[in-house]
Design brief:
The chain is about 35% helix and about 20% strand. The protein is α+β, with helices and mostly antiparallel strands. The protein binds zinc ion.
């Protein structure tokens, strides 16, 4: 590369002649010689600064290319996969190599989550991440499950031997609703300013579950919480219908039936019309409808627990397993595949 400015051309010459003998190549970017060129910018008349600055930058980029070139040339030893099992006496050349990076891709579930969050962002929701370890109060107490309540049995999960401040063991959350109390408390000031609380909470949840093609002990949920003035079941239906229609890119119908959760009243179980067969029945849905999520109007006790007056504000919440949503979308018949690490499965999505 040739430089019009004499000072830059001379410096380039000097740096080039020194380059091969420098051990720490990247250090050349911090050299006083190069810095002097940048410092000179402010001493120039304003009309010359742009052209000069452009050339100094070009030199800087050229130096970076030399550095990158040498680093690449020095990096000819293939990286070993130290996480793969191998005998310590295996000769170096036979030890497991890293797969080339082009084999990697975003995990299909994380890809789905990005897509789902994008839909909710466009609907005015914000996202808050769930926790993977929590306390008894957020898992049960704050959600209207009093001590000894039989509904606690439906959320059989894992506990640590370590105790939380309340003397009870920490729990691996069995649902993303553990975040509801925090989300409501954090959003209280919004309500006072006349804005609604509109939050979705993606998270990993855990159950003491016998694992089979439809059940996993570790899976993903997306919680939704919406609170404002005069919010009704109609708003809940509208939000979920809009979301499902956008997600499956088909006009989706909803069917609800009464259900029971301690933290919502009334509570519903929610089925969507099958996106594949228009309710005629197929191998995905059976009889035209797919049960997908639980939802309801947030129980007044849950609002009160977060310091929100249930006579002034109402709201709804839902929890959906988005692994199941993705299984329906792509016709995946075994939930265990997601966390199997099987490349033949993952590569179909890359
Ligand atoms: Zn169907």
């Amino acid at each position: 590369m040739s430089y019009k400015n004499k000072q830059i051309a001379d410096t380039a010459q000097v740096l080039k002649s020194e380059f091969d003998s420098i051990k720490d190549k990247p250090a050349i970017m911090r050299s006083t010689t190069l810095k002097a060129l940048f410092d000179a910018i402010k001493t120039l008349p304003p009309e010359e600064r742009a052209a000069y600055g452009k050339e100094v930058n070009e030199l800087r980029q050229e130096l970076q290319r030399w550095i990158d070139g040498t680093v690449a040339a020095d990096n000819t030893i293939e990286a070993l996969d130290v996480t793969a099992p191998y005998d310590a006496n295996t000769p170096l050349e036979k030890r497991p190599r890293h797969l080339p990076s082009e084999f990697g891709s975003i995990h299909p579930l994380m890809d789905e989550l990005d897509h789902i969050l994008d839909i909710f962002y466009r609907m005015g929701f914000e996202a808050v991440e769930a926790r993977e370890i929590d306390d008894d109060y957020h898992m049960f107490g704050s959600l209207n499950f009093p001590e000894g309540h039989p509904a606690r049995d439906d959320f059989d999960t894992f506990m640590t031997t370590e105790k939380a401040a309340d003397g009870k063991p920490l729990v691996a959350p069995a649902h993303t609703s553990t975040m509801q109390n925090r989300v409501l408390k954090a959003g209280k000031s919004k309500l006072e300013n006349g804005e609604p609380i509109a939050v979705v909470v993606p998270g990993r949840v855990f159950r003491n579950e016998d694992v089979d093609a439809r059940h996993e002990h570790t899976f993903y949920q997306l919680e939704g919480v919406y609170v404002g003035k005069s919010i009704t079941v109609g708003n809940l239906m509208a939000v979920l219908k809009t979301f499902m229609t956008e997600y499956y890119q088909k006009d989706i119908e909803l069917k609800t039936q009464p259900f029971y959760f301690p933290f919502t009243e009334p509570s519903f179980e929610f089925a969507i019309s099958c996106p594949f067969c228009n309710k005629e029945g197929c191998h995905v849905c059976g009889e035209g409808w797919i049960e997908l999520l639980g939802c309801g109007m947030i129980h007044p006790n849950v609002l009160k627990e977060a310091g929100i007056d249930p006579t002034k504000y109402t709201g709804f919440a839902w929890g959906v397993g988005f692994m199941r949503m993705a299984m329906i979308k792509y016709g995946i018949d075994d939930i265990r595949l997601f966390q199997s690490g099987k490349l033949e499965f993952l590569r179909q999505f890359s």
